[in-house]
Amino acid sequence: MLSLSDPRPVEVVNAGARADFVLICERAGASIPKQLKNLGLPTAELLRHIAYDIGAEDVARRLADQLAAPLVLQPYSRLVIDCNRPFDAPDCIPKVSDGTTVPGNLLLNESDRRQRYTEIHEPFHREVTLLLDYRAAVGVPTTLIAVHSVTPQLTGAGERPWQLGVLSNGDRTFAERFLVSFQRRNPTILSTHNEPYLVDDTSNYTIPMHGEARGLPHLLLEIRNDLIGDAEGQRLWAELIAQALEDTKAKEPVNG
Question: pTM for the complete prediction?
Fold first, then answer.
C-alpha cells in the first residue's frame, strides 16, 4: 500500500535522549497513502479533527525539546488507521467519524484492513517497543506521555469545557500527581482527570500496551485543540505541560 513517495509510518525524535520521559503522538499527521486517493474525501474534511489531532504534533515536538526527551510520531491520518486503537476496535478504521462518512473505508475486506495495520500500525508500535526495550536494558527510568488533542464540541453534542484532560486507566498514580502539579501552577485553567474520555483496555492501545503492561508511570493528555491551533498556543501549552511534568517527577517518592 505504501509507495516510496509516501511518508514512513514512524518518526523518532531525540532517539538517544535519556530524560525520564518518552513522548508518543499517535495522531500527529493527516497523511494518506497515495493509493487510497484521500479516502474519497474532500480536502476540507482532511483539515478537521476527524483526520488528525490538531496541534498535537507541534506541542509534542516542543515538549521533546524542552524536556530533552525521545518522541515517537505517527504521520498518517487516523481515518486511514487509528494507531491508538487495537485492530478489532470498530473505530480503528472508521466508516463514519463525527458525522462524516469515509467512502474509502466502507467496503474494506479483512485483507484490506490487515494491510493498513501491518504497514502503519505495527511498524509504529514496533518502534515504540524497541525504544522502551532499549531504555529498560540500559536502566533509564521511563514515564510514558501520550500527547493528543480534542475538539471542543462534537457535531450535535454538548460543549467540552475542559481545556486539559489528564487520562489514565488502572494506575492513576502519576496522572493524579501531574494533575495536582498542573492545577497548582495553573488554577485558572479548567483541567480534570479522565475527561472527555476514559482509557480502557479494549478501545485504547498505547497506554495499555506500552504503559500498563510494562508497569511504567504514564498518562494521556487531551488538550483542547482550539487552544493549540497556532504557534503561540503550542508554545504556551508545551511550556505549561513541561513545567508540571518536571514538578511531578521532582516530587515523586524515591521508591515510587
Answer: 0.95
